[in-house]
Amino acid sequence: MALSTVVVLAISFLQVSYGLYFHIGETERKCFIEEIPDETMVVGNYKVEMYDKNVNAFVPTVYGLGMHVECRDPDDRIILSRTYAAEGRFTFTSHTAGEHVICLNSNSSAWFNAGQLRVHLDINVGEHAVDYQQVQAKDKLTELQLRVRQLLDQVEQITKEQNYQRYREERFRQTSESTNQRVLWWSIAQTLILLITGFWQMQHLKSFFEAKKLV
Predict the structure, then answer these.
(1) How distant is the alpha carbon of residue 168 from its chain centre?
(2) Dist. CA 196–CA 203, nearest whole Å
(3) Of residues 141 and 12, more confidently modeled
């Protein structure tokens, strides 16, 4: 039981916050899919490095090379499209629950001659995206007030996650019912086709036997 709880908590943590790095070409585009509840803030921090053949390692990029970030909601509407520097932070708030697509590509063409790029990316969703130290300084909160604020944000995020899971379950149920209904109608259509084909064959054989005066 304890192990299952740990696994569930680990999966939940991975869903709201993860850090990674990936390699792309200078003109290549990389996209990620993130399932996000509605009215949820998403914060992404990134840093771009370029490969230097002289030192055989990734080093800070040249001046002028940056990243273009584009985010689309489940309805394929663009909610963020902006070019940033080689190291920066992007933020957006979801208005529709579902799969959001986050795409990154360098703003350059091959004339930078950067070759392969390494992009460090850290995405935080929900209350994990809030900088509580900044909130405490801005609102002048005590440690206790800040902790209460964090707990309230966590409860709100859990509620949003539960509503999103109910939405997914309802959508899955509708898809299953629609699939089952189509299978049923296809089975009925197949049965009718077999009956019509059998009746036609019987009539054809009857006509054939009568024409040959076998009956």
Answers:
(1) 13
(2) 11
(3) 141
